[in-house]
């Protein structure tokens, strides 16, 4: 099958070679048989043979160059298509943010930087509060508008973010580089919470949602992206149980959380 495809791609080149070879064979045969030809006739036949040969060789080179260029263009198009497909696989269609797969890849890369340089990174797990009533009352179009606006606000306000992602449904996550300690990560999370809680215009309505945010700071004990996400997720669910609409920091001990106030200055 591959051989047939290759021959199909070079059919014009093969046809040209066969035609050229047949013509040369014919000319040399005629030339060999014309023993009684005059010198002028011989020179004319030779000149005609050389002229046709030059034209055919030029055509051969043009076709070869064209095939090389076509092959390069096809390879570029195939590479571009593969890159687009890869991007689509890692992008949330509704919001344009990274999806969970891409987020976990970037967090894994971030962990390798943490191990090399000791920089501090945090993962925020953000779950919207009050999204379902908005979606049920005003319809899916309103719900989609809320998700897109929340995505835009997270992207705008997530300072030093490595990645902002929609994990699915009304869940988002942010991976960001922060100053060492607790204050900067908590201030970042509070800034994002305040941005989310601003009303969202939709048609003639003002839609309102809040969020509960779990914060996990990268430590030596967290060896994978899934560890960080689980820690931030655990802190977020603790916040849900404690009243929603607040920021919760995951503690250094397994399943322990340090509670923040709903607003951190």
From TrEMBL:
Keywords: Membrane, Transmembrane, Transmembrane helix. InterPro entries: DGC-Regulatory_Protein (IPR052163), GGDEF_dom (IPR000160), Nucleotide_cyclase (IPR029787), Rev_trsase/Diguanyl_cyclase (IPR043128). It comes from the Bacteria. Residues 119-252 form the GGDEF domain. The chain crosses the membrane at residues 7-26, 46-65. Coiled coil: none annotated. It holds the Pfam family GGDEF. This is GGDEF domain-containing protein.
């Amino acid at each position: 099958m591959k051989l047939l495809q290759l021959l199909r791609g070079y059919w014009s080149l093969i046809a040209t070679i066969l035609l050229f070879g047949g013509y040369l064979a014919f000319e040399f045969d005629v030339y060999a048989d014309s023993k009684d030809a005059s010198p002028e006739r011989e020179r004319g036949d030779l000149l005609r043979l050389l002229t046709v040969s030059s034209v055919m060789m030029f055509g051969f080179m043009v076709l070869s160059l064209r095939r090389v260029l076509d092959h390069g263009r096809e390879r570029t198009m195939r590479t571009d298509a593969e890159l687009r497909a890869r991007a689509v696989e890692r992008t949330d269609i509704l919001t344009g943010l990274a999806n969970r797969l891409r987020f976990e890849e970037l967090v894994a890369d971030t962990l390798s930087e943490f191990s090399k340089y000791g920089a501090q990174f945090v993962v925020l797990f953000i779950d919207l509060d009050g999204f379902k009533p908005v979606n049920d009352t005003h319809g899916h179009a309103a719900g989609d508008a809320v998700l897109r606006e929340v995505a835009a606000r997270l992207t705008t306000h997530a300072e030093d973010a490595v990645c902002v992602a929609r994990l699915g449904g009304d869940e988002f996550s942010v991976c960001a580089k922060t100053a060492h300690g607790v204050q900067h990560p908590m201030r970042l999370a509070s800034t994002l919470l305040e941005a989310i809680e601003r009303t969202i215009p939709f048609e003639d309505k003002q839609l309102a949602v809040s969020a509960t945010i779990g914060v996990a700071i990268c430590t030596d004990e967290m060896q994978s992206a899934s560890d960080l996400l689980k820690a931030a997720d655990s802190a977020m669910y603790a916040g849900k149980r404690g009243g929603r609409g607040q920021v919760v920091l995951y503690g250094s001990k397994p399943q322990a959380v340090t509670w923040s106030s709903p607003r951190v200055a």
